[in-house]
Amino acid sequence: MTQVLSAFNMKFPNFIRVGILPLRHLMELNYDSDGNVRFASGVEANFIQVLSEFLGFSYQLVITDDGEWGQMKDDGNWTGIIGLVHRNEADIAIGHLTMSPQRSSVVDFLFYAVDENSFVTNLPDYVMKSLFYLLPFHAYIWISIIIAVVLMPFLFMILTSKNLSFYELFFQLFSILLGQQGFIASNELKFRILIGTWFIFSLIISSSYRSVLLSTMMVPQFAYDVRNIKELAAAILDGKYKATTSKGSVNGELLTRSVDESLQVIGEHIIEESWFSKDNTIGAPQHIEDFTAVLGPKFVFLLEYGEPPYTTKRIFKETVSFWNVGLAVRKDFCCKKHMEKYITKILYTGIYEKLYEDELFKARLSFDWRDINPKIKSLTLTDFVGAFILLVVGFCVAFVVLLIEVQKIDSITVPCK
What are the Ionotropic glutamate receptor L-glutamate and glycine-binding domain coordinates in residue numbering (predicted)? Predict the structure, then answer.
C-alpha cells in the first residue's frame, strides 16, 4: 500500500510557485539572510505548509506588486494574485480568495472554506447622562403630563364648587403626582371622582417613572450608533456615516448587484481604501475612524479585532453575502484532483479549523482590557449634573416667588384705628 501511495505521489510536482498576498493573521512573512521570503505565521501560511508536507512538494513564494486580490482591468488583464496565476507567473495562489464567476473564467478554484461578508464599526462611546431624569419617558409623554398638570386645576375649578385658587389646586395636584401627601377635602361626588382619577393617573406615572429611572441610570448610554444594514444605509444617506472596503476586492460589485435596496445604497457610496500597513502586509484596518463602517470577511475581522468580550469593535450580526473561499490554480495545472483530495482531508480532519482557532487564541492573548470602558462602574458627579441643575433652577424659582410674596405683603395697607 505504501509503495502504491508513493508512486501516486510521484505524479505531483516536486516544486511549485505559490502566489501570495501578505495578509495579517493569515500569511505573515519574514526574510532570511539571503533575502528569500518565507512564511512566518498565519492560518493560510500553515495551511500551505501542511499541504506541502502531505503532497511532498517544496515551493517558492511569489508576491504580487499591486497588493490586490485580483480584478479584471479595462484592457482585459488581471491584477493581484489572480493575475499571477493567469499570466503563468505562479502555479497556485492563496489569499482568502473569493470564488467569483468572473475569476473562475481565467483560473480554477479548489474550495477550502466558506466565509461571510459583514460590516464592522467601533463600539460607540458612552455619553454623559446629565439629563438622565428625562430619559424614562418620550418627549410626547412629557408634553402630555405637563398639559394634564396645567389643565386639571381649571377642571376642578369649573366642575366643583370648592373655593380654591388655581395655585392651591396646582400645587396640591402636583404634590400628589410626585408621590407626596396631598389633601383636598370635599363631599361632592364629582370632586371625589376627579381626585380619584388623578390619584390613579399619578400612581401609574410615578411608578413607571421610578422603575425606569434606575435602569436608565445604571445602563450605559451610547452615542449615535448603527447596528444593522438598514440603519447604516440611512446614516450614509444622511451623511452621518461612511462605508469603506478593501481596494481590489469584489465587495463593491457584490453590493451594487444586490437585490436589497439598502445594500445598493451602500454600494453606491462605498469607498475603496488600501489595506496595506506600514509592514507591507494587508489586513483589516487596525484603527477604524468614528462613524465609519468597514466591509470585509468576518473571518478576518475576528482574527484582527477579536470576539466579544475581547474586542473594542462591533461586527454586524447581519451578513451581506456568503461566498466560497478557494485556492486559485492554473487552468492547465496537472494535479488539481490530487491536490483537492488532500485539501478535503485537511478540512474533514479539522486541521484547518485548528489552525484558525490557534490564531484566534493569539488575538485573545494580545487583547488589552484597558482599551474598553468597564460595563459596571460607580456613578460619578457627572451622572448627577442634571439633578443638581434642576435643584438650582428650583431654588431660583422659589426665590423669585418669595420676592413676589414679600412685595405683596409690603403693598398691603393696614388701616389705622
Answer: 25-87
Report residue 218 as a C-alpha cell. Answer: 445604571
* Span 137-185, pLDDT tens digits: 888 998 999 999 888 888 888 877 667 778 778 888 888 888 777 666 6
Q: Give the torsion sign (CA, 3, 4, 7, 9).
A: negative
Residue 275 has φ and ψ, to the nearest 5°, of -100, 15
Q: Which contacts of 275-280 are long-range, i.e. CB under 8 A and separated by 24 or more positions?
A: 275/67, 275/246, 275/247, 276/67, 277/24, 280/22
CA 366 to chain centre: 21
Q: What are residue 111's phi and psi, to 5 degrees?
A: -65, 140
Q: Does 309 have pLDDT greater than 90?
A: no
Q: Which helix (H) or strand (E) holds 342?
A: helix 336-348
- Detail the DSSP E strand segments found in 42-91: 58-63
Name the residue among 326, 336, 347, 338 with its Cα closest to residue 91: 336
What is residue 245's three-state secondary structure?
strand
Contact yes or no for 382/220 (Cβ under 8 A): no
Q: How confident is the model at residue 67, as a pLDDT?
A: 80
Distance CA 124, CA 121 (A): 8
Q: Which amino acid is at 247?
A: K
